[in-house]
Specification:
mainly alpha; 17 helices
């Protein structure tokens, strides 16, 4: 929630103290940034799963090796993403059909944000380690402090010095560096097997292999979603600058509505990983159901608020009347359907915690393909806003059915295997 709040502050500051073009450029860029940055998130998922399983099995050496391997991987991953981002920025902007009046703003924003990818990578890996070790407070505190600095820098650089997108991007990178340092320090302060020692900072090939087994499929999955979003953003861009600005503001509101979903995804992932490592498959299903229900309750409640107060919420971003109209149209169409996101997202977290990421990748690949098909084939039939939006809930329903079916199959198989293992142990005694 705090991450969303500070991103909202970015948009409000630039919406009120810069041009509509600058606001639209910043608001339309998250999917392009996520295309590469999500690689870090996916790989860090593998880190969390491995460390959670080692912790559940009381494997102290495994926890230590995993932490030091993950820190090395975070630095390498961040450096590669920075270099790649610099090379692909221009092609990505052209591929997403960014209007010419936004191109200069978008280019500067992406270059600066990609330069700080190493900090995002370190934060994702260290945060994943902390949550796997049962500490969710340290990531919260680091985001709160770094985000406060981000907000102060936004006001200083944009409102006072008129640096528009450059000011927002610089503030973002500085805050990311602060949060990366704080969350890594949080890992070190846990002590014991989690204490970071310079002499142990190297790749342990066994730990690396286990992390990549989970992390690579998760990274592929994380990349597929922004790829599909680029096609959707390209379709939105065809409606003009006002539509881009309105959709950016409403998209931020939608993110608030679904802010609980990633939290319960991560909770289900860590809980299933720890109990899988401890051989307690019977607890996984109950935790998954509770996580899904809680996520749905939060989303439904916030969807009602977003629907009722759609216009005032979009106006907070300093949008023009035409942009507000676009934003309200989107919220009124999508808000009642956002609850559909809960089922596939929480199920994917549970499956990842159990080490079954290949199945989630296959499902996301299919659904991303459906989204691209909808944008390229179905949407041009009438080229209307409503038809474009209809593709999203259909995609969520498909994803929910496929993820739930796969999870049931996986849990039943693991349950049988666990019972057989316990039976053999009992007979041996």
């Amino acid at each position: 929630l705090l991450q969303m709040f500070f991103h909202t502050a970015d948009l409000i500051v630039i919406g009120r103290f810069a041009s509509e073009q600058a606001f639209a450029a910043v608001g339309a860029m998250p999917c392009l940034i996520a295309l590469l940055v999500n690689v870090c998130y996916g790989l860090s998922t593998g880190t969390g799963v491995v460390i959670a399983q080692c912790r559940g099995a009381n494997d102290v050496r495994g926890v230590s090796r995993g932490i030091h391997t993950a820190l090395c991987m975070s630095i390498v991953c961040g450096a590669v993403i920075t270099a790649t981002g610099m090379l692909v920025t221009e092609p990505l902007l052209r591929a997403s059909s960014v209007p010419e009046d936004l191109m200069g703003y978008a280019r500067k924003y992406l270059y600066i944000c990609y330069s700080g990818s190493v900090f995002i990578s370190i934060y994702n890996f260290s945060g994943s380690m902390l949550r796997a070790l049962g500490d969710s407070r340290s990531p919260f505190v680091s985001i709160a402090m770094a985000g406060t600095i981000n907000l102060a820098l936004d006001v200083l650089l944009v409102a006072c010095f008129g640096m528009d997108v450059v000011g927002v991007a610089v503030a973002t990178v500085v805050s990311q560096a602060i949060s990366a340092f704080m969350v890594t320090l949080g890992v070190h302060r846990i002590g014991g097997a989690a204490r970071i020692r310079t002499k142990l900072l190297r790749f342990d090939m066994h730990s690396l292999g286990r992390m990549l087994k989970v992390g690579i499929p998760a990274s592929v999955q994380s990349i597929l979603l922004p790829v599909a979003s680029i096609f959707s953003q390209g379709a939105v861009n065809s409606f003009g600058t006002a539509a881009i600005a309105g959709m950016a503001a409403s998209g931020n509101v939608d993110s608030y509505v679904t802010t609980a979903v990633p939290a319960f995804h991560q909770t289900s992932l860590n809980f299933s990983g720890q109990n899988y490592g401890a051989g307690r498959i019977d607890r996984v299903w109950r935790a998954h159901l509770f996580s899904t229900v809680y996520a749905m309750v939060f989303v439904v409640a916030l969807s009602v608020v977003a629907y009722v107060f759609a216009a005032p919420l979009v106006k907070l971003y300093g949008a023009t009347p035409e942009a507000v109209s676009w934003g309200v149209r989107k919220i009124h169409f999508i808000a009642p359907l956002l609850v559909l996101i809960c089922i596939p997202d929480v199920a994917a977290g549970t499956m990842r915690g159990l080490g079954h990421t290949a199945e989630t990748v296959a499902i996301v690949l299919f659904c991303a393909g459906f989204t691209v098909f909808w944008v390229l084939v179905v949407f041009p039939i009438t080229h209307t806003f409503e038809l474009l939006m209809t593709g999203w809930p259909i995609d969520w329903i498909l994803s929910g059915v496929l993820h739930s079916t796969a999870l049931v199959v996986i849990l039943r198989r693991l349950g049988r295997e666990t019972e057989m293992y316990r039976g053999r142990r009992y007979e041996g005694q």
